[in-house]
TrEMBL record:
InterPro entries: Bact_solute-bd_prot1, SBP. It comes from the Bacteria. The keyword Membrane does not apply. It holds the Pfam family SBP_bac_1. This is Multiple sugar transport system substrate-binding protein. PROSITE patterns: PROKAR_LIPOPROTEIN.
Length: 446
């Protein structure tokens, strides 16, 4: 069930419940929630999350540990895989049985916040129940939907460039600083090709991530706030992006689409950069960690800056913990106390490590890096170092990707490839991208 169907399903169900009962669904559900509280102050919290068996096991261990520390609080856990999680949650929510604590994804939090499913957690931040002082402000703000703090971020990720230091050294190049520019980027790619015969950039642009970054550098947004059309008006923005990369392809400094297809048929660790056949690759902050078994030298650097030094990078929330608005006040308070413990405690941070992404709390990251908790390796520590650099050049987090993003990514890759092979000019491709994407986004109009 996609986001649009979930939103429609929840809206229609809530309307139906309200009409039939003559009162809001939240009030009725809170009465049900109170029945799970005993007279002796004991509270049972239902909690749902997605993940693999390893995540299920250590999360249950953390729930047990929390109950041992707080005997009045017990948990009813509902772990599932990603597949089916959202359909199950939509059904539970529509039936008035949304779990008290919900692991929430950035792509769905707006839907559940707008349908009044999620409690406003600002009151718990204001009274100190949930301490977000160790979390980047932009990350905290990402959970604020229409004035409601609908989720507390647990983790984060961000765009990056993975680099092979050996290939750069072979070309007589040093690792660039964080303030490098797109001109530096182009020159490095070409120098690698000229000096070594190897590829400067191994990339296929199968999604709009780096183009989104480029658009933000131009002071624009990729999509309108209502997700019904592209947000930038000047196609020259995309034309320049395409021309930059077409120039690299023509110089042999970037792989062709066919070369990428051949390489990407291999596992991540067997691709061009870890195999010392290319210098740079765009990706996420996990790329070096993913290939460490075959090449533990791959490093991370922020994408190139523009001449103005615009803070176009962003910290993407990995996942949140949200609390059900239908839970009683007592259960919301108990849930908020648990969320604070999960976010900030060394016990929870040590068990979780980087499984849910880079921990949002700087206190937890520092403890993991120092080795006082958990057992992370050198590449994960380097990933934390990268986070610190990336955070210093990051701006506001953009809204979640719109419905239809997978189609948009395919269109983007297609028009880029046509430019690379000379089947379209960059001007024709930019116009085609706008026409096709706006048709896709028009489906999001009410």
């Amino acid at each position: 069930m996609n986001r649009k169907k979930i939103a429609l399903f929840l809206t229609m169900t809530v309307l139906g419940t309200t009409v039939l009962s003559g009162c809001g669904a939240t009030g009725e559900s809170k009465e049900t929630s109170k029945k799970e509280e005993t007279g002796d102050g004991r509270i049972n919290l239902s909690i749902a999350w997605w993940g693999n068996e390893t995540r299920h096991e250590y999360t249950q261990e953390l729930l047990d540990a929390y109950t041992e520390e707080h005997p009045n609080v017990t948990f009813t856990a509902s772990p599932t895989s990603w597949d089916g999680y959202w359909e199950k949650l939509a059904t539970q929510t529509a039936g008035g049985s949304c779990p008290d604590i919900v692991q929430m994804d950035y792509s769905y939090i707006i839907t559940y916040a707008q349908n009044k499913t999620l409690a406003d957690l600002q009151k718990f931040v204001d009274d100190g129940t949930i301490d977000v002082s160790s979390v980047e402000e932009s990350l905290v703000k990402s959970g604020n939907i229409g004035g409601t703090l609908a989720g507390i971020p647990l983790s984060t990720s961000m765009a990056t460039i993975g680099y092979n230091p050996d290939v750069l050294k072979e070309a007589g190049l040093e690792v660039p600083d964080a303030d490098w520019t797109w001109e530096d980027f182009s020159n490095i790619c070409k120098t690698v090709k000229e000096k070594t015969g190897k590829t400067g950039l191994a990339n296929n642009y199968g999604d709009c991530l780096i183009f989104n970054y480029w658009v933000r550098q131009h002071g624009e947004v990729l999509f309108r706030e209502d997700n019904t059309a592209l947000g930038y008006e000047d196609d020259q923005i995309l034309v320049d992006f395409m021309d930059l990369h077409k120039d690299l392809v023509d110089a042999g400094a970037m792989v062709t689409p066919d070369e990428w297809t051949q390489s990407s048929a291999n596992p991540e660790e067997a691709r061009l950069v870890p195999k010392n056949e290319a210098a740079l690759v765009f990706g996420s902050n996990t790329i070096a960690n993913m290939v460490k078994t075959v090449n533990d030298k791959i490093g991370l650097i922020t994408p190139p800056m523009n001449d103005e030094g615009t803070k176009a990078l962003w910290l993407k929330p990995g996942m949140y913990f949200s609390i059900s608005a239908s839970s009683s006040d007592e259960k919301q308070k108990a849930a908020a106390e648990f969320v604070n413990w999960f976010l900030n405690s060394e016990e929870a941070g040590g068990k979780t490590g980087t499984d849910r992404g880079i921990p949002a709390s700087s206190k937890v990251r520092d403890a993991l890096k120092e080795g006082t908790i958990g057992n992370i390796d050198q590449k994960e520590k380097e990933m934390f170092d990268y986070y610190d650099v990336a955070a210093s050049v990051s701006g506001e987090c953009p809204p979640p990707d719109p419905e239809g993003t997978s189609e948009i990514n395919k269109v983007f890759q297609d028009v880029m490839n046509r430019v690379f092979y000379g089947q379209m000019t960059s001007e024709e491709a930019a116009a085609s991208f706008r026409e096709q994407v706006n048709k896709i986004l028009a489906k999001n109009k009410n």
